[in-house]
Amino acid sequence: MTNSQLNTNEMIDKGMQQAHSMSVEESVRTIENIMQVEAARQKDYEDNKIENL
Question: Where is the region Disordered (predicted)?
Fold first, then answer.
């Protein structure tokens, strides 16, 4: 597992822990935000890899 995947999993775990004190809608939004951030990070990584070839 890569470092960024590990960080994402940790963030999702934290999101899940916080979910107990949030509504379902809020926790879904939190997880969606985390996933968007991770997708953007992955895209940047791919773009940089292509540029560096």
Answer: 1-25
Output the pTM of the full model: 0.48
The token duo for 20 is 């107990």
The whole-angstrom separation of Cα 16 and Cα 22 is: 10
User: Which one-letter DSSP state was computed for residue 20?
Assistant: T
SS3 (DSSP) at 51: helix
8 A C-beta contact, residue 8 and residue 38: yes
pLDDT tens, position by position, 1-53: 566 666 778 877 887 777 666 688 888 898 899 999 999 999 999 998 887 77
